[in-house]
Amino acid sequence: MSSRAEKIWNYVILTVMAVVVLWPVATFVTAALSPDRAGRPTGEIQWDNFVTAWNNAEFSRSMLVSLTITVAVAVLGVLLALLGGYAFGVLGVLGDKVFFPLVLLGMMISLEAIIVPLYYQFRALGLTDNLFGIILIHVGMGVPFGIFWMRAAFRTLPRGIFESAEMDGAGPFRMLWSIAVPNLLPAVYTFILLSFMWTWNDYFLSLVFLHGDNQTATVALGVFQGRHVTEVNLMAAGGLIVAAPVLILYVLFQRKFISGMLAGAVKE
Fold first, then answer.
1. pLDDT given at position 160
2. Residues in contact with 46: Cβ distance below 8 Å, sequence separation at least 6, in sequence order
3. CA–CA separation, 235 vs 244, rounded Å?
4. Where exactly are the structural domains of the chain?
5. How far apart are CA 53 and CA 59, in angstroms?
6. What is the DSSP letter of 91?
């Protein structure tokens, strides 16, 4: 009886939590589909809100800019994270007791504390209003966490598999790409998804460093919402358009993401 009562209470608690989490989402979607400017439900569905938001905000250009930046950051970030995590977690590079804490220090630096000198430095180098410049900043800010994440993942693998591969004549890169990475795909997918989400959702850096035709989707959404303050349905539709790539990616890779997050409980 006690176990049955526990199951009932578990379902009740989970149902309440699901309602609390999903209610704002349902309200947001309802507002995006409402013909009423205030976003109130009317029983009618107006899909044209998405078309209007897409055209008025000029999302076709800004979404392409965001996608270019995000994909480049995710690819470069995961490559550097794999190499750094492998060096610190498996190879045991010389001076890792000193260099690894320096890498972790990069996770503790606040963007707001360095944004002004960073802007002037990049302006002197001609990297403001430049996609390569903002890609470089995002990669630099994400790599410390990536190295920390992948180092923890590499250290979950038994040392014996690397020793056996080394005895068979495999070099460091062969062990990395043929042995380590295939066994750590959930952690890799998780980092890619996190990197994609953080970069795609960035507003502050894009607002400071990019202008004009290089405007990202989040900045374009901010400008669009500023012009349509009284039209809640259009603002909600624009918000859903910008959020759609991250939501789709999460739905496609949710199992790998969850398994990768659970693998974060590693042994040292």
1. 80
2. 33, 34, 35, 233
3. 14
4. 2-48, 49-262
5. 8
6. I
In this prediction the pTM is 0.85
Secondary structure class of 41 (helix, strand, coil): coil
CA distances from 192 to 70, 75, 150 (A): 10, 8, 11
| Cβ neighbourhood burial of 221 (10 Å; 0-12, 13-18, 19+) | buried
- What is the pLDDT averaged over residues 62-82? 94
Q: What is the mean pLDDT of the chain?
A: 85
pLDDT of residue 124: 92
- The C-alpha atoms of residue 170 and residue 133 are separated, in whole angstroms, by 37
Crossing angle for the helix pair 48-57 and 59-86, to the nearest 10 degrees:
80
CATH architecture of 49-262: Orthogonal Bundle (1.10)
* Measured CA angle at 71 (ends 70, 74), to 5 deg: 85
Give residue 168's pLDDT.
76
> If pLDDT is split at 50, 70 and 90, which confidence band does 146 have?
very high
